[in-house]
Inverse folding.
């Protein structure tokens, strides 16, 4: 066992979304609804030049949990299969940290307008990082156990949040 | 200002790298050196099916800092330019969280062997998430302010950690 270190992190802003009762499993690019991040005033200077990036990482606390983390989870895309929590994006993890890659639309003052984020309204933000194509876009990546699905093409529509009627 | 919430997170393991005195700015795929993550035994079950992914996110605490965070930083790739801290991957941020996308080589027990990670030996790990191609690989991403460089091609070698002699 590693040392028992704990770390105290603080909210730097809030993520505003239309999701109050339920949220999608992954970011959907819903252009008809408003999604924005509000940064605490003391951090606004830290946004300089961010708008030059097309995508950013949001790092946040998954604070709407009502169950304890479990080492095994049953993801929505797995046909009932149980996978390890670290093989999933489940919010029920030892540290309830979430990350999402979202499209940056514009920044006005302390508001960052983004494409759809798969989080509840009022989610506490911990950090923003630029998504740097040369570092973060791995074109030879795969979809792991998700590829075991019998119907990967259909599943891929769910994952990418593309509406479909079958 | 948002509410003053703070959150306590805990170490779930440690990242082992050859970097003791200095670390590269970004992950290099150094196949001649050993990089691995050791997960605390209580979390090993959470690794089930992870090895099906080619890439994973490591989320960790940047705990080797000796300066206070600043809203403006001068990144190594910016020709002396100052950018906002959230437009950079600088470790000197309001919350010292780091994320790296690394290649997963193999998992043996509680050890995850990975390609090069740009962190110091003994870095405390907070979370592991699968890098899911359909979610996380944005092929239309850009390199933001980094593209303002006069010599982007050269800079890109630095960013991607590709050795070169000019």
């Amino acid at each position: 066992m590693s040392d028992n270190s704990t770390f105290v992190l603080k909210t730097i802003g809030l993520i505003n979304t239309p999701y109050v009762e339920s949220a999608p499993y992954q970011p959907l690019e819903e252009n008809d609804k408003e999604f924005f991040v509000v940064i605490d005033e003391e951090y606004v200077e830290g946004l300089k030049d961010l708008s030059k990036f097309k995508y950013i990482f949001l790092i946040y606390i998954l604070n709407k949990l009502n169950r304890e983390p479990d080492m095994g989870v049953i993801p929505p895309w797995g046909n009932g299969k149980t996978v390890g929590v670290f093989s999933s994006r489940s919010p029920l993890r030892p540290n309830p940290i979430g990350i999402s890659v979202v499209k940056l639309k514009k920044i006005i003052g302390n508001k960052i307008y983004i494409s759809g984020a798969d989080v509840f309204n009022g989610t506490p933000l911990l950090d923003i990082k630029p998504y740097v194509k040369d570092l973060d876009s791995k074109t030879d990546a795969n979809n792991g156990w998700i590829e075991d699905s019998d119907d990967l093409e259909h599943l891929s529509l769910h994952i990418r949040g593309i509406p479909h009627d079958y």
